[in-house]
Automatic annotation (TrEMBL):
Keywords: Coiled coil, Methyltransferase, Restriction system, S-adenosyl-L-methionine, Transferase. Residues 135-449 form the DNA methylase adenine-specific domain. Residues 633-667 form a coiled coil. It comes from the Bacteria. It comes from Melaminivora suipulveris. This is site-specific DNA-methyltransferase (adenine-specific). One of its GO terms (molecular function) is DNA binding. NCBIfam families: hsdM.
Length: 807
């Protein structure tokens, strides 16, 4: 059975436990990722002639596994596995598996490396069989690990990784997905880190493209090379070196000092690199990168990287570069560079991002989009302030799927959206002395809620505040009149009791009709999606499935009133990430199967060693027991629910009886523990005692209730066991069509229906809350409030006088 993505990720992350504590995350990531790489290339390429990756004899993962327990395991891994593999594939700076300062000495090193290797021996991690072709499940696992390592590496060591969400935005806005591509199409990242940004651009291309990257840090450049291989890009060229001082990609046909130019360039260079000019004479740059636009300041290297990118672009090239916000408004030399860039027409757009997105810094950044092809016709720069769209993710912020889609949609369509995005003409920019700071051009602030003085003094809800809810009245024109009544010119009063606001909205015919239309809208999409989902066959690409499904849902809800189209889209993407993705990968590998398996939970001691295993019953992916029971054994489940309700009632009666008679001198006052044995013993003690008749009645009542409770517990347990057996026996009888209905209809679409229905609930809740807020704000005019205060003050003074505290 194929491994689920979520299980793969958790298994790989668990391997980090073998190293965590011995070294910093920025160091132990190297060991884990090398193990992942060796396992993957061994499964995929070992023994294959003409494979793009060479596995030298004796250097496969199986050969590494044979070293487990060896006293010199670290040294042998270096000499027999890592060294030959690195040499054969030009992989530089592999980690030292015999470093006792990181891995410990003696038995500690042996145990640590042995356990680490054992993690990757899990049969479920057979990468030759558990990979959906075209979806790079292993590449995604690598991405997952890189993000977690970056999170744990701390402020100064997480710069090897660009968040995947930002990388996806950049890959899409440069337009590579809408342009025809071939292997001759080139993509370059001059500060490629671990290569994730390059790979995101490759994912967006319509065909295989050629990737180039340079990275200053030697260990990180090795990670990038491995990342290329794991993502099925083994021919990508990754060079190590300082891009500004020693660029590795040159065009020999044009002369020794000519940079190679590319079709697309993306980069996330270090922010404000204070040592950017080390090893370089900017005034006499042999590559002419600063001659046209100006030399960046000695202590601010942001523009140095951007100018390198521009010089590395073909005349038809497109680029996107992440820079800190300071480049938009800082003066002196940077102001001159900005002026020249704008006048040359190279700046296509600027996208402001939320703060705290990037590892290694919390400052906000922006994406600078370069377009050489249309520079001569440039009339303005498209600016976007996307700083408010994100979610919290541990210590960092993170773009949601809806944020990514919204940014890309608005930018690619050049759609002007109030408080979010607009095309700013070059004349306006020149009037601002080429200052590109986004707040100068886009007011993204939210208007403060206005307090109406006349409303507070004289009472009444301002009509302007009610009119501001025009989006609701446009859909339900009569609802306004049902909620508000005229008071005086320009002011209204609530037409219903405050407690009835919610019910008035929900019961209004127009609002009910709107909700019904929205339900019908989802049903129409469901009818389109269900046949396509049930038609999925082994070998399909899950990533293509979710892209098509999500885009169809987004298009289906576009233009609908009140509802946030991108919020609907987010519900699908959230469900995909938590549940549907795992199901899709299982189906892509195994087809529509519903096979049960035992759930075995390993119990560990305080040292982390497994002491015993506990059988937690059975389960089935992708058809949970609850779905099968709901469809085929509803009557049996209802019987169980009824028994459970009766048991709860009996238990409640028993608890109530115990509580009622547990006070001082009460029946159960002297009991250490109330159970059948103690109650029976007490009845035996008071047998024949006429004065204890009332106590005996209570004790006998307890025994009767306890007997009923025990009988119900047994009935419930027997019924649950019988249903469990029936359900388990039903799985092998399921036809493919039944499994498809259970998964597509009862699981996927039902869950999405419930989520989107909840979105509709938020619409009514928002209106209810705003109406109630206005009613409470202006419900008591200031004179009436002051009169009430005077009345209360008089009462307090009267009480004080009677108590002898008169003023």
């Amino acid at each position: 059975m194929a491994i689920k993505k979520s299980e793969l990720y958790s298994s790989l992350w668990a391997s980090c436990d073998e190293l965590r504590g011995g070294m910093d995350a920025s160091q132990y990531k190297d060991y884990v990722l090398v193990l992942l790489f060796i396992k993957y290339v061994s499964d995929k390429y070992a023994g294959q002639p003409f494979a793009p990756i060479t596995i030298p004899p004796g250097a496969s993962f199986a050969d590494m596994a044979a070293l487990k327990g060896s006293s010199d395991i670290g040294d042998q891994i270096n000499k027999r596995i890592v060294g030959p593999l690195a040499t054969a594939n030009k992989l530089a700076d592999m980690p030292d598996f015999n470093d006792d300062t990181k891995l410990g000495t003696g038995k500690e090193m042996v145990d640590r490396l042995t356990n680490l290797i054992a993690t990757f021996e899990n049969p479920a991690l057979d990468f030759s069989k558990n990979r959906a072709d075209g979806d790079d499940i292993l590449g995604d696992a690598y991405e997952y690990l890189m993000r977690h390592f970056a999170t744990e590496s701390g402020k100064s060591k997480g710069q090897f990784y660009t968040p995947a969400e930002v990388s996806r935005v950049m890959a899409r806005i440069i337009g590579i997905g809408s342009a025809p591509t071939t292997s001759a199409t080139t993509v370059y990242d001059p500060t490629c880190g671990s290569g994730s940004l390059l790979l995101k651009v490759a994912d967006e291309a319509t065909a295989k493209v050629t990737l180039y990257g340079q990275e200053k840090d030697s260990a990180t450049s090795g990670l990038a090379r491995m990342n290329m291989i794991l993502h099925d890009n083994p021919t990508a060229e990754i060079r190590q070196g300082n891009t500004l001082a020693d660029p590795k990609f040159k065009d020999s046909t044009l002369g020794r000092d000519q940079l190679k130019t590319f079709d697309y360039v993306v980069a996330n260079p270090p922010f404000s690199d204070k040592r950017w000019s080390t090893g370089l004479d900017p005034l006499h740059d042999p590559y002419g990168r600063f001659a046209t636009f100006g030399v960046p300041p000695a202590k601010q290297g942001d523009f140095a990287y951007l100018l390198h990118i521009i010089r590395s672009l073909k005349s038809t090239g497109q680029a996107a570069c992440i820079l800190q916000h300071g480049v938009l408004f800082r003066g002196n030399a940077e102001a001159e560079i900005r002026r020249n860039l704008v006048r040359h027409g190279y700046l296509k757009g600027i996208i402001g991002l939320p703060a705290n997105l990037f590892y290694g810094t919390g400052i906000p950044a922006c994406i600078i989009v370069i377009d050489k092809q249309h520079a001569h016709a440039r009339k303005g720069i498209f600016m976007m302030d996307a700083s408010s769209g994100y979610m919290k993710d541990g210590p960092k912020n993170r773009l949601r799927e809806q944020d990514i889609h919204r940014i890309v949609d608005v930018f690619t369509r050049q759609t002007e959206v109030p408080q979010f995005a607009r095309m700013v003409g070059l004349e306006e920019i020149e009037k601002n002395d080429f200052n590109l700071n986004l707040p100068r051009y886009i007011d993204a602030s939210r208007a403060e809620d206005r307090q109406d003085i006349a409303g507070h003094l004289q009472g009444g809800i301002p009509a302007a505040d009610v009119d501001a809810l025009h989006a609701y009245w446009a859909v339900c024109s009569g609802l306004r009149g049902a909620l508000f009544a005229p008071l005086r010119p320009g002011y209204l009063q609530l037409a219903v009791d405050q407690a009835a606001i919610k019910s008035t909205i929900h019961q209004h015919a127009e609002f009910a009709a709107f909700m019904a239309r929205m339900n019908d809208l989802f049903d129409a999409w469901r009818q389109q999606a269900a046949p396509a989902l049930k038609a999925l066959q082994p070998g399909f690409h899950p990533k293509q499935l979710i892209a098509q499904l999500a885009d169809s849902l987004l298009a289906h809800y576009t233009g609908q009133p009140l509802i946030d189209t991108y919020a609907v889209y987010q519900h699908l993407m959230d469900y995909w990430a938590t549940t549907m993705q795992d199901d899709a990968y299982l189906i892509a590998t195994d087809g529509w199967k519903a096979e049960t398996y035992r759930v075995i939970e390993a119990k560990k001691n305080k040292d982390g060693k497994v002491t015993r295993s506990v059988d937690k019953g059975w389960a089935c992916d992708p058809v949970p027991k609850a779905l099968l029971v709901a469809r085929y054994f509803a009557a049996e489940q209802q019987e169980i629910d009824d028994l459970a309700a009766r048991l709860d009632s009996a238990s409640a009666q028993l608890a109530e009886l115990e509580e009622e008679h547990s006070g001082e001198d009460a029946t159960f006052a002297g009991f250490d523990k109330i159970n059948k044995a103690s109650v029976t013993d007490r009845l035996r003690e008071i047998k024949g005692d006429a004065d204890a008749q009332d106590e005996a009645e209570v004790l006998n009542s307890w025994l009767e209730l306890s007997k009923d409770e025990a009988a119900l517990k047994k009935q419930l347990k027997d019924a649950e066991a019988a249903l469990d057996a029936k359900a388990c026996a039903r799985y092998p009888q399921l036809s493919e069509a039944e499994i498809q209905a259970l998964v597509a209809d009862d699981k996927w679409l039902a869950a999405l229906d419930a989520a989107i229905h909840g979105e509709m609930g938020r619409i009514s809740q928002a209106l209810t809350q705003r109406v109630r807020e206005l009613a409470e704000r202006y419900g008591t005019p200031l004179p009436l409030m002051l009169a009430k205060v005077e009345e209360l003050e008089a009462k307090v003074n009267a009480h004080l006088a009677r108590m002898g505290f008169a003023a």
